[in-house]
Amino acid sequence: MAITDDVLVIGGGIAACTAALSAAETGARVRLLAHKKSTLRQASGLVDVLGYAGDEGPFSDPYAGLDALPEDHPYHIVGEDGIRDGLRLFDEAVGDAYQGGHTDTNALVMTHGGAVKPTARYPESVAPGLASSSGDMLLVGFENLTDFDAPVAADHLTAAGVPFSVRGVTLEFPKSFRSDAKVTRFAKALDRDESVDGGTARSVLADAIDAELDGETRVGFPAMLGDDHDDEVRDELADRLGVPVFEVPTGPPSLLGLKLEDMLFDALDEAGVRISAGNPAVDFEAEDGRIETVIVDQKSRRTPYEADQIVLATGGLVGKGIDSDREHITEPVFGCHIPHPEDRYEWSEPEAFGSHAFARFGVVPDDELRPTDEDGAVQFENLRAAGGVVGGADIAREKSASGVSLSTGAVAGRLAGEEATQ
Amino acid sequence: MSDAESPTNPNLNPGAQTDDFEAVEVFPESTDMDLRPGADNCYKCTACDVSCPVAEVDDEFPGPKFQGPEQWRLKRKDDEPVDDSIMSCSNCMRCDDACPSGVPLSQMHNTARGEYVEKEMDKLSREYIRNRILANYGTLAQLGSMFPRLTNAMMGNSLVQMVNEKVLGITSERDFPAFATQTFREWWNERGGPKVRSEEKRVAYFHGCYSNYNTPEVGKAMVRVFESFGYEVVVPKQRCSGTPMFANGMLEDAKRAAGINVENFSGLLNEGYDVIASCTSCSMSLRQEYPELFDIDGIKDVSEHTYEALEYLRIHENLEDELREVSVDDQSFAYHAPCHARNQGLDRQSVELFRELDGVEIEDVGDSCSGISGTYGWKEEKYDKSMQIAADMFDHMEHAQGDVGMTECPTCSMQMEHGTGYDIKHPLQLLEEALV
Ligand SMILES: Cc1cc2nc3c(=O)[nH]c(=O)nc-3n(C[C@H](O)[C@H](O)[C@H](O)COP(=O)(O)OP(=O)(O)OC[C@H]3O[C@@H](n4cnc5c(N)ncnc54)[C@H](O)[C@@H]3O)c2cc1C
Ligand code: SF4
Ligand code: SF4
C-alpha cells in the first residue's frame, strides 16, 4: 500500500499551493508534498504579474504587456484567463490581507532599497505607502535592523522623482536586543507590547517618532510591525501618531513572506488539501509513459506516494527544482528535459542584470503544461509543471515571478484535477 | 538525513590523510566525523535563525547559525572552545527543517554540545549533575516505578519540590508526571506477550521510557491496534532512545543506550520485523541521530526500518478507508504537532486521518513549538523561557474548538496540560477507540 491520492502536487511554494487549491476545486483529493520551507520565506510578500517585457515597461496594465513577451513564455500557454484565474485563487486564499484585487492596474510599491516597482497584489500593511498615492513620507529605520537604511531609501525614492517629499531617520528601538537580533524578535516585542524603559514598546516607539514628525502625513517602517497581532500594532501606532503607518517589504528573512506562507497553508487546510512536509521527492516509478509512484526520502527510508495525476512545482534554481553543475542543467526528480546551451559561457551575460539565458532555464511545457523531451513529445502523460521549474520567463527582469507561479499553478492544478476526477 | 551523514567514511578517520586534503578533526574526542562540507553549505540566509524558538525569547542565545556553521568555522581555524550558549539549544531540530541548503545543524549542535560537556563542564557542578539526572530519566523512572504510589506522593510534595529546585535546579513550577502503578512491560508480561502470531506482519515495539513508566495506556493502545490489523508485536528489551541525552550533551550515555537498542532490534530485522515507536522523539532518534552521531554495527539498518506507529499503518494498511467506516463518540481535539514529528514529515498525519473519522473534530493549533523540549523546560533557569515559547500554543489551544489536547510527544503533552489544564490524548488512543 502506498499513500494514495488523486492529485499529488510536489513543492511548497506559491506555485504548489495554487496548483493544489485549483485541483481541489475540481473535487479531486489532493496532496501537497513539500520538502523545505518555500522561498516565500525569503520573498518580499509582493505578488508581481508583469512589469516589464523586452524593452517595454513599466506597464500600468500588466495584461497590456503580454504581446511583447517572447513566444515561449508560459503566459502564452495559460493566457490572460489563466493569469486571472491564478489571481482569483490567490485573492480567495488571502482575503482582506492583500490589496490590489479591485483593479487590473499595477500598483507602484516601494522596495526596501527605495526603488519603486509595479506589482499586482500587496499586503494590506503596505498599502498606505504606495508611491502612487500622495502624502509626504517619513521613513523610520532602526540601528539594529541593518536591512533597511531609511535615509538611503528616502534619497533613492526622491531621486526616482516621486511627487511627494520623503525623509528618512534612524532611531533606536525602545528595547535593546543583541546586535544581530532577528526581525522576528522586534515583531514579537511589538506584538506583546513588552515593557521597556519609560513605558511599553509601542508607546515609547510612538513617542520617539512623534518627536521626529515634521508635517509628514504617513510613516513607513521595515516590515516588522508585529506578527500575530500586526493589525493591533499598526492601529495603535497610527492612533498615537495621528497619521497612517505602513510597512516596506524587506529582503530575507521576510516577515511578509512568512505571513503569506501561513495564509496559503491555512487556505490549503480549509480546502481539505492534505499536506506532507519535511521530506523530498527523490525518485519515481513509471509504466507506459505514466508516473505510477513518487518516492519520498523519509529520513533515509523510501516511502511511496501514489496519485493519478502529478504536478511538479519544485521551483527554479533557488527552490532546488532545477539543479546545475558545471556542465549540465537538470530537473532532479523526474529527469525532465531542460534545454541549455552546450557552452557554459553562454549561460549568462557579463552584466549582472543582463538578459541571462539561465534566468529562462526550465522545462518546456506543451499546451497543457506537460514537460516535453528533446523532440517535443510529452514526457509523462500525467505530469504537469508549474512555477519556477517552467522555463521561458525571465521573472526577475519582467517582475513576473509570482504571476507565473500563480497562473501556471492554477492551470496545471485544474487540468490535473479534471483529469483525475473524470 | 543531513549531508554529513556518514561517520564511517574511511578518509575521515582520525589522523588519516588523503591526497586531496588534510582531514581536520574538529571534535576528536566525541566523534570522528568531518562536518566541514556541511558548514560550507551555509549561505547565511538566516532561515534557521527565524525558526529557532529559543532565539525568539532568549536574547542571550545567538541562534542556530552561530551554534552550527559559524562556530564550526571558528573552531577549525583557531581551535576555539565551544561557546557555552550551546547549552541553551533545546534540540528541537527546527533549524534542520528550515535550512534550505542541507546544513546538518542539529548534528553540529549535538556534537558541539558533546564536546562542551566533556571538555568544559565541571563534573561536580550542580548544572552537570542536574542535567545528568534529567538526561537519565529512564533510570530515575525505573526506580520511581518500583514504588509508584510512594514516589508520586513524594514528588508531589512541596518540600521535595523545593529541594529539587534549590539544590538541583529542577523547577518547582511543574508537577512530576505520575508513575503508573503497573508499567507497560509488566502488563505485557502479565498478558503473556503477543496475542497474534504472524510470519508476514511483524513489528518490534520501541516503547521508550515514558509510555513504559508513565503512560502505559499508549503502549497498550499501540499493541491492540496493531494486533487488530493482524500484526505480531514483540517488545524487545530496550533502553532510553537517547533523546534527553543528546539534548544535554551526554553523548557517552547516549551511545551506550544506542548500542543496546541497536543490538536488540537489529537482529529482529532479518526475521522480518520493522521497528515501531509511539513517541516521535524516539523514532527521530533511531532514524536520524543514531546514524548521524554513532558508528555502531547495524545502526543504519535499524534506522531504515524504524517508523512512527501511525505512519506505519498509513503506509502498510488502508487506514483511511477503515476509519471512514467507523465512528466514535463525539469529541473534539486541539492537536499540537511536536517539533520532532515535523522533522519526520509527520506533523499533519493525525489531523488528516481523524478529519475523516465520524464523531471527531480536530484542529491543528499551529506550528509553534511547545517550548518544553524534553528536559529544557524542567530546568529552573529555562522554565520562564519555556513558558514564553509556549504562549502561542496555549493561546491557539484555548481558541481552538476542542477541549482535549492531542499530541504524540510525552513532554509536549506535559506542557499542554500544564498550560491549559486540558486532558491530552495520544493519536493511538483514539485509533484504539475507533478500531478495536
Ligand atoms: C529573495 C526573493 C525575493 C522575491 N521577491 C518577489 C517579489 O517581490 N515579487 C514576486 O512576485 N515574487 C518574488 N519572489 C518569487 C516568488 O516568491 C517565488 O519564489 C516564485 O514565484 C517561485 O515559486 P515556486 O512556487 O515556483 O517555487 P519556490 O518558491 O522556489 O518553491 C519550491 C518549493 O518546492 C520544494 N521542493 C523542491 N524540490 C522538492 C522535492 N524534490 N520534493 C519536494 N519538494 C521540493 C521546495 O522545498 C520549495 O518549498 C521572490 C523570491 C525570492 C527568493
Ligand atoms: S535545535 Fe531548536 S533550539 Fe537548537 S538551535 Fe535549532 S531551532 Fe534553536
Ligand atoms: S538556514 Fe542553512 S543556509 Fe541559511 S543561515 Fe541557517 S544554516 Fe545557513
Describe it.
The complex is a heterodimer of chains A (422) and B (436). Chain A is of the alpha/beta class. Chain A folds into two domains: 3-98 and 257-421, FAD/NAD(P)-binding domain, CATH 3.50.50.60; 113-250, Rossmann fold (3-Layer(aba) Sandwich), CATH 3.40.50. Chain A has helices spanning 14-25, 74-94, 150-159, 183-191, 201-212, 230-241, 255-270, 395-398, 401-421; strands spanning 3-10, 30-34, 98-99, 107-110, 116-119, 122-123, 137-142, 166-171, 195-196, 199-200, 218-222, 245-248, 274-277, 281-287, 290-298, 301-312, 323-324, 329-330, 383-385. The longest helix of chain A has 21 residues, at 74-94. In chain B, helix 4 (64-78) crosses helix 6 (105-120). In chain B, helix 23 (410-420) links the parallel strand 7 and strand 8 (423-425). Chain B is an alpha/beta fold. The longest helix of chain B has 19 residues, at 251-269. Chain B has helices at 36-40, 47-50, 53-57, 64-78, 94-98, 105-120, 126-135, 137-144, 148-155, 158-168, 184-190, 208-213, 216-228, 243-247, 251-269, 280-293, 299-304, 309-316, 319-324, 339-343, 349-354, 383-399, 410-420, 427-435; strands at 202-206, 232-234, 274-277, 306-308, 327-335, 358-364, 404-406, 423-425. The complex binds flavin-adenine dinucleotide and iron/sulfur cluster (2 copies). Residues 52, 54, 64, 67, 89-95, 105-106, 109 of chain B line the site of one iron/sulfur cluster (SF4). One iron/sulfur cluster binds next to helix 2 and helix 4 of chain B.
